[in-house]
Amino acid sequence: MAFTLEENFVARLQALEPGWNSYGGNPITPAAIECLKGFYVVPLGDGGIQLETHQDGWDIEIGIGPDGTIMDARARKCGGDELAPTQNCIANWRVI
């Protein structure tokens, strides 16, 4: 079971105007938002969640514990079919 990020969150990112932060931030690009749509929120049995994506040849996972702390973050570069991301990996998981 996995959920995509809420559409109103994406809409709020799209609505950011030039200078949205105190450093003159640029608006978020459509390409960045399109990539974000490839991330999923997966509920975990311990009450935490996992944020993950398998796109552009990368597997990226961030585990968030039930107390709200980041438990782990890891990434690996893979190739081939996004539906079988563990095949054709050119590197093992790298804890980041």
Structure notes:
This protein has 2 helices and 6 strands, in the order βααβββββ. By secondary structure, the protein is of the alpha+beta class. It folds into 2 domains: 37 residues, no CATH class; 59 residues.
Q: What is the makeup of the main sheet?
A: 6 strands, antiparallel
Residue fraction in strands:
25-35%
User: Helical residue percent?
Assistant: 10-25%
Question: Alpha-carbon distance between the termini?
Answer: 25 Å
Number of domains: 2
Poorly predicted spans: 81-86
Concise overview:
The chain contains two helices and six strands.
Which properties best describe this structure?
96 residues, alpha+beta, 2 domains, 6-stranded antiparallel beta sheet, 2 helices
Q: What's the SSE blueprint?
A:
Layout: E1 3-4, H1 7-14, H2 30-36, E2 40-43, E3 49-55, E4 58-64, E5 70-77, E6 94-95
Antiparallel strand pairs: 1-2, 2-3, 3-4, 4-5, 5-6
